[in-house]
Design brief:
This protein is mainly α. The chain has helices at residues 4-18, 36-49, 54-78, 90-94, 153-177; strands at residues 85-89, 105-109, 117-120, 131-134. This is Secreted protein.
């Protein structure tokens, strides 16, 4: 796989090799060692290595989304408070990924929490962070830090992790019951 840096260097090479010598100074001219045919073959080889099957890329994104959504539906059945939707983020989703997708960044959004939780910052809050504080009573009351309106991010996250684990184990058990393997499947 060709790195972004390599591609940028190639682009600079293409531009530099096509520039005329500066004011007749032969030392300012950059020459590719070899014939133009060699350079063209080299560029075509590199170009072939970075080509991506767009249809395959879209299909992979759809499959990942379907698997995550399936798990989140099971999570919501286990605890309705954790009713999330998936929101993809990052280079693959934005179409900026060079090469085939090898990772997917995504966020879990709970629209029901939006108007019931505020973000607070105080003198003890690390830079770039905030505390989640309840505005009204919610299903998250059990995760409040005693004596405050703040929610324990650790407890909220740990409960989500437990729910995801249960959802995945349930799926695995069902697949084993019908004789399907789980290798490569969420």
């Amino acid at each position: 796989m060709v790195s972004v840096t390599s591609i940028l260097i190639l682009k600079v090479l293409c531009v530099v090799t096509s520039l005329p010598p500066s004011y007749g100074n032969p030392e300012s001219e950059v020459k590719f060692p070899g014939s133009d045919a060699d350079f063209k073959e080299f560029l075509n080889t590199v170009f072939g290595q970075i080509q991506v099957n767009v249809n395959k890329k879209v299909q992979v994104k759809k499959n990942v989304y379907a698997k995550i959504s399936n798990i989140l539906n099971k999570v919501a059945k286990l605890d309705p408070c954790y009713n999330f939707r998936v929101e993809f983020k990052g280079s693959t989703y934005e179409g900026l990924k060079i090469g085939n997708p090898d990772e997917f960044d995504f966020g879990l959004v709970n629209d029901n929490w939006a108007s019931k939780i505020s973000l607070e910052v105080d003198g003890n809050t690390p830079a770039g962070f905030a505390y989640a504080a309840q505005i009204v009573r919610t299903c998250l009351d059990k995760f409040k830090i005693a004596g405050t309106k703040r929610l324990s991010a650790t407890k909220v996250r740990d409960h989500l992790r437990d729910l995801v684990e249960k959802a995945m184990l349930e799926r695995r058990s069902r697949e084993e019951a019908v004789g399907r393997g789980t290798c490569g499947h969420l």
